[in-house]
Amino acid sequence: MAACTAAALVVGFLLTPAGDTVDNGKWQCKVAITPVAGAADTVRADQVLSYAQGSAVTTAAAQKLHLTDVAGLTARRTVVAESPQMLLFTTTGPTQPSCLELAAALSEATIIGYAQESKKSADESIKRLQNQADAQQKQLDDLQKSFSKANASDQAKLQPQLSTATAALTKTLGAIADLQNYSQTDAIQQWGSIDAKELGGSLLSSPSRGVRLTLAVVLGLALGVVAALMLSRMDTRLRTRDGTEEAFNLPVIGEIPSLSRRLRRLREPLVTARPADPATEAYRSLRSTLLLTGPEALSGQLGQGGLDPDDRRVRRAVEPAPVVLVMSGRSGDGRTSTVANLAAALGETGRQVLVLDCDFRQPELNEQFGMDEGPGMAELLSGEQRTDLVELIRPTRVPNVAMISGGHATAYPAALVLRAGEVLALARRHADVVLIDSSPLLNANDAYDLVQHADTVLVTLMAGNVRPEEADRVSELLARTGVPVAGVALLGAEVATGRRHRGLRLPGRLGGGRGEPGAEPGRPALPGGPAAAERVVEQHRPEPHRAEPHRPESARPEQRRPEPRRPEPRRAEHQRAADGRRGEPVYGAAGEGAARRDGTTSWGRRPAELPPEEPVETTLQLRLGEER
What are the Basic and acidic residues biased-composition ranges (predicted)? Predict the structure, then answer.
């Protein structure tokens, strides 16, 4: 609409004169010209029309009106032959008097000018006939002399010649008399009075440039509205919650409003930079929904914040942290900003979050946290350098959030992602939650290779960036992996219209990616079974889950554990963890020491012991010098 309005304004400005002009089409006058009585036989309409259309009439009218713009005066009059005996002059003018004056001047100039032309032509004809009459008179005189001298027989012969010469002379003299009378009177005259009426003009011929530019703006706006409606009909990109759920066949678990350009330029997550902003509350709502509908390892850590440092380390060794893969179909879907803000929102709950930047094609996660580039996942996965995973964990200014940046990828990104399984297994024991930022699924295969190592997937979508067929392709690819899909986070969401679709493929009904009983094969499952799926449908925005005090494993029948804990081994693990703290690096948020005052462990502590079900050493651990 703005483009059409601006274009119409520019065109209107260029096509209108700089100053105000006179609207010569506001009044219209008509006057008829006919031959005088008795002159119809001698006046030819084509001759009168040819004379009236000539420049002599317009010039004479301009002189009478004391005007110098003869061309402009010519443009204001038209003359046509209404019939063989009538000419019609039509004039226009800005006012009634000016229109009447022009019509009268043209009528008078035509009558007088044609009379003068007729007199001039008659004089020439009289002169020619007079010469002819003189010759005939001389011939007649000669015949009369011969007739008077001739005898009776000769007079009889000369009498016919004498009569013929006399008749010819009489005819010539009669024609001369008629021409003399014709040249002394007008051949044409005005028929009736001048007919004048007001046309009213139009906006297109308005004398004011402002009026014409206003008209151009109105026309541009109307054209813009039509163009916008046509584009809206033809544009099928997803913009609303209803359309997103229908296209992905997944629930929208978070709707993030549009952010201003100033907020998008922040080098810090919005959750920490603007805690009271509506978008921050939307990210918190997304966090709460993800905790309730995510995997058991994620939803079962509601009391994690109450553990002391040693208990936290021991629990990580027994129960590795869940991995949440944040992905999108196309670039520009707000995937990286969602990872940063979701990490900050999870950090508010007391969980220690480790963020991995696995977008090796365009790593930008360090910019979200206001950090410089450095070695990261690319160096760790390539194996070109003996790099310890703990050494690459960098604390951020966001509480309880650390990250490993993308690094500088020298190998092909797809080859790096294929080696990510063992690295992620180690990263699970250094945090409570692991968030992964990946490449767009439809643009690269990196995200598809990372899905198999994740516990749940969160899809991000920027309103107006993805078409339904692309969303359907993303949903199809995710369904083939068998990994639970938590849902879709819609950024820049518009107000939804209509009723929501109830037939969604919710995580609990997507199928048994993790051995969920009763699930369809090849599709992710929602923790909690069909009952949890129905609860998600009925509650689109669940309230944040209240943290519960830590309970022993026997009090949690819904969570499965590899092995039941025993008091004796746990005390032994505590003892080994206490002994292993000596000499280990400590790294966390700026200003943190070896142990935090609030009792929480720092990021740098290594796990006390590997999980019993995993091998003690792996190929990647030997290569990187990881913990034994």
Answer: 535-584
CA angle 23, 104, 95 (to 5 degrees): 25
With beta carbons less than 8 A apart as the criterion, state whether 397 and 267 touch. Answer: no
DSSP per residue over 109-160, as a string?
A: HHHHHHHHHHHHHHHHHHHHHHHHHHHHHHHHHHHHHHHHHS-HHHHHHHHH
CA distances from residue 232 to 225, 238, 455 in whole angstroms, order as listed: 10, 11, 38
3.90.1300.10, 3.90.700.10, 3.40.1000.10, 3.40.50.300: CATH of 241-300+308-493: 3.40.50.300
Find where tokens 């009889």 sit. Answer: 156
3-state secondary structure of 165: helix
* 573 burial type by CB count under 10 A (0-12 exposed, 13-18 middle, 19+ buried): buried
How far CA 559 is from CA of 28, 316, 460, 546, 562, in Å, comes to 94, 15, 28, 18, 10
Beta-carbon-side half-sphere exposure of residue 535 (alpha carbons within 13 Å): 13
List CB contacts of 240: < 8 A, sequence separation 6 or more: 463, 493, 494, 495, 496, 497
- Determine how β-strand 456-462 pairs with β-strand 188-198: unpaired
For residue 563, the one-letter residue type is E
- Domain borders along the chain are 24-198, 241-300+308-493
Residue 459: predicted pLDDT: 95
Both tokens of 318, joined, read: 């027994």
Average pLDDT, stretch 530-552?
40
Say if residue 193's pLDDT is above 80.
yes
Q: Rounded to whole angstroms, how far apart are CA atoms 236 and 232?
A: 8
The owner of tokens 């813009």 is 224
Instruction: Give the 3-state secondary structure of residue 486.
Output: strand
Q: Which tokens sit at 535?
A: 């609860």
Element holding 415 (H helix, E strand): helix 413-417
Write down the residue that tokens 């709502």 correspond to: 285
- Element housing 571 (H / E): helix 567-580
